[in-house]
Amino acid sequence: MEKRLSMIRQIENFENSGSDSGWWYRWVVWIDPCASLIPRSRLMYERMRRAAQNNKKRLISDDARQYNRNLRGRAEVLKQASYEVEKVPWLMVLARGKVSVHVLPKDWKVTGGGMAAAVRDLTKVLHRSLGQDAQLPRVLFTDRGTGMYAPSGRIVHAFNAAVKETGFRTFWGEDAAQQSPDMGDLLLHETAVSWFRSQMRKEKPQAVPWEETREQWIARANVCVRRINAKYDVEGLCREFLGRLQKCKEIDGGRLKK
Fold it and tell me: Is residue 184 part of a domain?
């Protein structure tokens, strides 16, 4: 908790960014590398469907719990790649009141080189989202994840080189040691990722789930992104960071309620 409070004090001491929510809206790009799994067999689809039910509250009788269709699955199947799933890596991009999901190549990896390639696509992604004539936001805020930062907080060389090459900069510069590694509840892109995954669960595939192609998955993702930008308060989300920090201070660095 002290690490979170220390980070908040550091941000508050920065000129503009410490007190102006409009600054965060105008200049910050929130990015997060993610991935989704497409089942490649009916059996794997059933395993993933059951695993997805683990976090749902269900009113169900004791007898009905024993029915095959109501059994719960292992959460690991939603995260682990295997020959029975196709992994689709993607980058969540949140900036200036717009959500974008940039689908990455099939062989993309969460490494410094992989993140460097993703950053080199960022200008194109932002122009597509914000308009070709838009003056782009140039400050990147991420978690301290693999491919971007070492455990010490030092920035990964390949990622840093691509950031500079493309005219962006990271909020903490080359050393994010001041950023708390435990701040998922504070990061705005985590909310956007949650919105996207929720919409993808609701938007039915064009084919049976285990026969959905990568191209069909991308088309479904685009529908979900358009819906989020049309119906969710993405504008408000992009101004929310300082408010989250204030709430965190009020509970002595504790985690915010969902």
Answer: yes
Residue 257 lies in a domain: no
In this prediction, residue 58 carries a pLDDT of: 44
CATH number at residue 190: 3.30.420.10
Burial of 212 (0-12, 13-18, 19+ CB in 10 A): buried
Instruction: Identify whether 222 is part of a domain.
Output: yes
Q: Using alpha carbons, list the distances in angstroms from residue 72 to 13, 61, 108, 121.
A: 48, 14, 31, 39
Domain membership of residue 150 (yes or no) is yes
Name the percent of the chain in helix, strand, coil, to the closest 5.
45, 15, 40
User: CA-CA distance, 218 to 197, in Å (whole number)?
Assistant: 13
**Whether the predicted model's global pTM rises above the 0.70 cut:** yes
Sheet hosting strand 98-103, strand order edge to edge: 98-103, 85-95, 28-39, 139-141, 169-170
Overall domain count for the chain: 1
Mean pLDDT per 10-residue run, the chain (258 residues)?
A: 94 86 96 96 91 61 50 53 86 98 97 98 98 97 97 97 98 96 96 98 95 97 98 98 96 92
Q: Which domain holds residue 11?
A: 2-40+83-250
